[in-house]
């Protein structure tokens, strides 16, 4: 580490994950001097322990399923085995290439990277490795960790996503506590790798933050794949021995498996880093900010998973850019949380942006909302891929589209246009008049808007 005692920077960023490194890169681009403090590796959870490694596993899982089902396309393939050492090597190579590229970017912008655990010791100062780093502005970006439940200890056969990503074997059976994004993605991977999977979700639906129509379709698809799930009953306890884990629910049901994956969400990393001592307001560990992401203390801002809201890498990335531009005086437009796209990269994929039907009715009234579902059965490319699903549009009556919700293979790649439609407040007629390439799944968005505009073609409306 370079000797930075006594050096004052324009901006000190505490945490080098998606939000922190984005803030550092954009600030440096705007001519600011930046110190980036990171206790582990630049890139944070997303690159090293989250988004990238899990999606690498999901791609390997997709290849496994393709090998199993090739005969239905006239390609007679078989699946020999899953070599987890080989899968993990592939995963590590993907991470390594991206990490090397990110390090090069940070170095090229002349950002001072300081390795070590940083603590906020004054509104303009972070202490790390016994040195005090001062900045005209400080950005808190300390990220998140895999949560557990009170009394549920991680260890042995009880793991979080952190340990699950390092497994060099495929469990014969696994219980997943939590049916949100993380739990559903691991369920999809392990089922494709040949495991017997059971999800336990205390809420009434899997992917419970999505539109209810998507959740129900997702449950049908998982049931068809042979993924088991138990909904609406809370977890009560687990024991483990040489034979596996033994999970009990509050209604008395019990489940046995090789492993229990605890996937009940992520908590903010805000303990023992000096935030509260410097007057930063915390609520259940999350840093409270205004819409400009300012903490109300000095020139201290916060971004990413420590700020209440969607815990998504691209949200943190966008917030990092926003704060850098805010500090530089560019007055960027505030980020609208509902306009941030959301994707669950399972089989099938779930992708959405904007308001669910239920939320739209809360905002605009029960009589002020229109919806439409376009089945992918009418989409040529979806038929070629052999996928099922639909696109659901939520519209303010006689107004713009306020929500786009999709389920099916590869729909995560369609959410970009959905984001433009919602954030630019497009009317169905605006999108219906656009020409979508044929045959693509993207064309299903065009067909859905044609139908909502009152002129359905490949739809029985």
From TrEMBL:
Q: Where in the cell is it found?
A: Cytoplasm
GO-annotated molecular function: dihydrolipoyl dehydrogenase (NADH) activity
Give the organism the record lists.
Cellulomonas fengjieae
What this protein catalyses is:
N(6)-[(R)-dihydrolipoyl]-L-lysyl-[protein] + NAD(+) = N(6)-[(R)-lipoyl]-L-lysyl-[protein] + NADH + H(+)
Enzyme class, spelled out: oxidoreductase
Q: Taxonomically, what lineage is the organism?
A: Bacteria, Bacillati, Actinomycetota, Actinomycetes, Micrococcales
What is this protein called in UniProt?
Answer: Dihydrolipoyl dehydrogenase
Cofactor list: FAD
Q: Where is the signal peptide?
A: none
Q: Misc remark for this entry?
A: The active site is a redox-active disulfide bond.
């Amino acid at each position: 580490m370079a000797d930075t005692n006594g050096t004052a920077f324009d901006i000190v960023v505490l945490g080098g994950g998606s939000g922190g490194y984005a803030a550092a890169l954009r600030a440096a681009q705007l001519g600011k001097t930046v110190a980036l403090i990171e206790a582990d590796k630049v890139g944070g959870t997303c690159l090293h322990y989250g988004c990238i490694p899990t999606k690498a596993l999901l791609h390997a899982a997709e290849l496994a399923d393709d090998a199993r089902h090739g005969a239905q396309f006239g390609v007679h393939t078989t699946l020999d085995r899953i070599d987890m050492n080989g899968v993990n090597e592939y995963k590590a190579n993907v991470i390594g290439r991206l990490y090397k590229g990110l390090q090069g970017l940070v170095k090229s912008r002349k950002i001072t990277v300081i390795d070590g655990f940083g603590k906020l010791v004054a509104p303009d100062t972070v202490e790390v490795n016994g040195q005090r780093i001062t900045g005209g502005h400080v950005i808190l970006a300390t990220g998140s960790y895999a949560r557990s439940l009170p009394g549920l200890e991680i260890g042995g056969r009880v793991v979080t996503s952190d340990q699950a990503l390092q497994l060099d074997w495929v469990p014969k059976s696994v219980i997943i506590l939590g049916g949100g994004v993380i739990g559903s993605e691991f369920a999809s991977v392990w089922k494709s790798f040949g495991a017997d999977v059971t999800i336990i979700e205390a809420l009434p639906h899997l992917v419970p933050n999505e539109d209810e129509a998507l959740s129900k379709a997702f449950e049908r698809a998982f049931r068809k794949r042979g993924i088991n799930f138990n909904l609406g009953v809370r977890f009560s306890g687990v024991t483990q021995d040489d034979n596996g884990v033994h999970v009990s629910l509050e209604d008395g049901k019990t489940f046995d498996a090789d492993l229990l994956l605890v996937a009940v969400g992520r908590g903010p990393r805000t303990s023992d880093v000096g935030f509260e001592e410097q007057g930063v307001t915390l609520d259940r560990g999350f840093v409270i900010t205004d819409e400009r992401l300012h903490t109300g203390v000095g020139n201290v801002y916060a971004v990413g998973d420590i700020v209440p809201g969607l815990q998504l890498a691209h949200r943190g990335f966008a917030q990092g850019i926003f704060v850098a531009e805010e500090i530089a005086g560019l007055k960027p437009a505030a980020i609208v949380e509902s306009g941030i796209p959301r994707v669950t990269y399972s089989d099938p994929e779930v992708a959405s942006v904007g308001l669910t039907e239920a939320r739209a009715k809360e905002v605009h009234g029960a009589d002020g909302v229109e919806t439409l579902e376009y089945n992918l059965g009418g989409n040529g490319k979806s038929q070629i891929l052999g996928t099922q699903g639909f696109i659901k549009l939520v519209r303010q009556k006689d107004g713009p589209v306020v929500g786009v919700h999709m389920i099916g293979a590869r729909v995560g790649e369609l959410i970009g246009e959905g984001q433009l439609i919602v954030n630019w407040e497009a009317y169905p007629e605006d999108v219906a008049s656009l020409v979508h390439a044929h045959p693509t799944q993207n064309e299903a968005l065009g067909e859905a808007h044609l139908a909502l505009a009152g002129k359905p073609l490949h739809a029985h409306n």
